Amino acid sequence: MLGLHRPLVVVWVYLLFPGAGGRSSFYGYNNGFHYQDISNGNGNGEIYFNGIRLLVESPQSSVLGTRGNSITLPCKYRYEPELTAPRRTRVKWSWLPASTTAASTDAFTAETDVMVAMGNRHRSYGGFRGRVRLRRSTPGDMSLVINELQLNDTGRYRCEVIDGLEDESVTVELELKGVVFPYYSKKGRYHFNFFAAHQVCQDQEATLATAEQLFSAWEDGLDWCNAGWLADGTAQYPITVPRHGCGGEDLAPGLRSYGRRQRFLNLYDAFCFSASTKGECEHVTAALLTPSLTVLFHHIGCLLNLKDGKQLHSSSPGLC
User: Fold this and answer.
1) Residue 208: what are its φ and ψ, rounded to 5°?
2) What's the rounded Cα separation, in Å, for the pair 111 and 96?
3) Please, which residues have CB within 8 angstroms of residue 43's CB and are 6 or more apart in sequence?
4) Domain 19-176 in this protein, CATH class
5) Residue with more model confidence, 190 or 283
6) Is the pLDDT score of 113 beyond 80?
7) Residue 87 has what pLDDT?
8) Which ranges of the chain does DSSP label H, i.e. alpha helix?
9) Preceding peptide of 97 cis, ω within 30°
10) Which CATH architecture fits 178-313?
11) Which residues of the chain are in CATH 2.60.40.10 domains?
12) CB 320 within 8 A of CB 279
């Protein structure tokens, strides 16, 4: 009679003390140990700690790709100590777009499923359907291969390996080669709310730049005194030469930020990001060709052919 009640007692204890029998989704991602539901040889199913540790790793925290090409996001799992027989695991890749990486306070709830695989069975989702696969070059290799990279594929990808009641994960950032450029209305500066800025960048076959992309452009020499919208809803501008009217002469060079702004009411310019395409120059329509823009795009000598027949130079390595 006691044997019949044992499974109920085990389940009751597990529900009351989730930390003692596995990982509840409310208690973070990593505790470093693996648990297994297995028969102990006498026919009684028990949950017990067997001392095996599941590790999920990536040799790269970020990768840089080219629009239209393929890219591999590295991910590999292993056990400590090493197992003598293979185990049945489930792998899940998810994605947090670059536009929400900085803005989201609860990253896990904003993640979108990319691919789920178990054994030889797999399923991809949404815009990734038919474009992704697992590399599987060696045992434990769960690296994600993305074909035909698109402009909106940038962001943070999570590789999660699930074994029984335990799971571990690692993240990899995907960035694209390209150029950041300021865009403002022909009527003058500060005419776009956040949504209008997003649209004008799309009209240029570009996206709103991220803070990281703007910072990289600043490191490459971008200096622009007018604030522009970024993908996370902040308004910022890059200054390499501090001066009056651009934050003051006493501030150090860097990004000047107004912080997160009201997306409907506040008006600024836009900082757009245009990704290169398979090593060829990207065609961009300029809002206005000013002396400042000419200096800006002259940084490394990569020509951009405009729809009006003019030419600008890229301010970012790797565009051509």
Assistant:
1) -60, 135
2) 5
3) none
4) mainly beta
5) 190
6) yes
7) 86
8) 2-16, 18-21, 98-101, 107-110, 194-203, 211-219, 291-296
9) no
10) Roll (3.10)
11) 19-176
12) yes
